[in-house]
Amino acid sequence: MVSQLPVRILGIAGSLRTGSYNYALLRAARDLAPPGAEVHLLDRALLAGIPPYNEDVRAQGEPASVTALKEAIRQADALLIATPEYNFSIPGVLKNALDWASRPPETSPFSGKPVAIIGATAGTWGTVRAQMHLRQVCQALNMFPLNRPEVLVAFAAEKFNADGHLTDETARQLIRSLLEELVRWAICLRRRP
Ligand SMILES: Cc1cc2nc3c(=O)[nH]c(=O)nc-3n(C[C@H](O)[C@H](O)[C@H](O)COP(=O)(O)O)c2cc1C
């Protein structure tokens, strides 16, 4: 059930790395959230505790980490996923978490959920290929991804300072705009019959 204002956004980073640029992007998003929106960051310990997907394990009872992830998704009005790019796609850690939370499909917390996608890489292409794959997964999950603006942070080493603070003003402005659009999108979807 979607709450009234503030719009609650759950930030999920697809990286467990301590110095993760993508987690740092989410921290920036939390600081840049517009009035009327709150960005809450999913605890990465929770993500790290999710076992590799196995239908036999699920049949014996859903792991507590998965139940907690699903509940966090349910509580959110919208998701903000920051994905690294691994071999032109999304990391297994992220895909595994999405797969677990999507079962059983009848009660999936993703269905009808607005989502925005961002990503950072030390490389050249700003995670564009991973983001396109993630959009395809969002379609399978019946989520509603925001189309624009695209937030593709390339050459990340130059865009964050030593403390992991996003210093690049263009990226900061894009994240601001994205969050404004995501809030509008969440409110718009909330009003649908
Ligand atoms: C297995 C693996 C594959 C990778 N493949 C790509 C890739 O296809 N494109 C890319 O831009 N960076 C690639 N990278 C580099 C990551 O994008 C980079 O390590 C990034 O900082 C990871 O995100 P994080 O800082 O949030 O942990 C790869 C890294 C790993 C470990």
Q: Could you characterize the architecture of this molecule?
A:
- The protein has 193 residues and is α/β, with parallel strands linked by helices.
- The protein has a single domain (7-190), classed as Flavodoxin domain (Rossmann fold, 3-Layer(aba) Sandwich).
- Helices cover 41% and strands 15% of the residues.
- It contains seven helices and six strands, in the order E-H-E-H-H-H-E-H-E-H-E-E-H.
- It has helices at 21-32, 44-48, 55-59, 64-75, 92-101, 128-140, 169-190; strands at residues 7-13, 37-41, 78-82, 114-120, 144-145, 151-153.
- Strands 1, 2, 3, 4, 5 and 6 form a six-stranded parallel β-sheet that branches.
- It is globular, with a radius of gyration of 16 Å.
- The protein starts with 6 loop residues before the first strand and ends with a helix.
- The model has no long low-confidence stretch (mean pLDDT 96).
- Flavin mononucleotide binds at residues 15, 17, 20-22, 84-88, 121-123, 125.
What percent strand? Answer: 15-25%
**CATH architectural group:** 3-Layer(aba) Sandwich
Say which CATH homologous superfamily is assigned. Answer: Flavodoxin domain
SS content category: alpha/beta
Q: What is the mean pLDDT?
A: 96
The amount of helix comes to 40-55%
- So what's the CATH class? Alpha Beta
The major beta sheet can be summarized as:
6 strands, parallel
Give the total of domains: 1
CATH topology: Rossmann fold
Any idea what the radius of gyration is? 16 Å
Pick out the low-confidence regions: none
Q: What sort of overall outline do the alpha carbons produce when their principal axes are compared? A: globular
Number of helical segments with 4 or more residues: 7
What series of H and E elements makes up the topology?
A: EHEHHHEHEHEEH
Q: What ligands can be seen in this structure? A: flavin mononucleotide
Strand runs, count:
6
- From the N-terminal CA to the C-terminal CA, the straight-line distance is 13 Å
